Amino acid sequence: MESNKGTDRPDQERNIFRIFYVLKRALDEWGEHHLNLMHNPRFHITYMPFFMNIGLSGISNNELAMLMGVTKQAASRIVKELMASGYVRAEKNDIDQRSSMLYLTKAGEQFYIEVEQATKLLEQEYTKLIGVRNYDTTIDGLLKLIKFHESKPLK
């Protein structure tokens, strides 16, 4: 069977589902590769957004769930895995007894800094490729798309 790639379906390259799928897969592969370089192959790449949003200053478990757009139970499962990895610790929230404050451990802080440095290098590669203005516009556009979907109830 002969491939018609690029001839009868010029819209395929710009198909939004393909774009997001390929980009997510590429970012996951990049992340897995860098986790191996950091001698941390057991850290699951899907936990990275949660880990990085705990950050160096900490966050409540409720805020983390809201920020990530998941249920408290879903966030709690990932936080338990992060705690088991030794990178995150939880303390009672003095302000809201129904939630916990999440903080990085010393090992978590070091890992966070390593990930942040690797991410900055990737962002530098992106800005070399498409320019700072295009990169910033892309990020701003993606944030608007997220806000659009978060504000629209499914019908």
From TrEMBL:
Domain of life, source organism:
Bacteria
Q: Which organism is it from?
A: Mucilaginibacter pineti
By what name is this protein known? Answer: DNA-binding transcriptional regulator, MarR family
Task: Cite the Pfam families for this sequence.
Answer: MarR_2
Looking at the record, the residues that make up the HTH marR-type domain are 9-147
- InterPro entries cross-referenced by the UniProt entry: HTH_MarR-typ, MarR/SlyA-like, WH-like_DNA-bd_sf, WH_DNA-bd_sf
The protein's GO terms of the molecular function aspect are: DNA binding; DNA-binding transcription factor activity
Q: Which UniProt keywords apply?
A: DNA-binding
GO BP terms: response to stress
* Keyword field contains Nucleotidyltransferase: no
- Which Gene3D superfamilies has this protein been placed in? Winged helix-like DNA-binding domain superfamily/Winged helix DNA-binding domain (1.10.10.10)
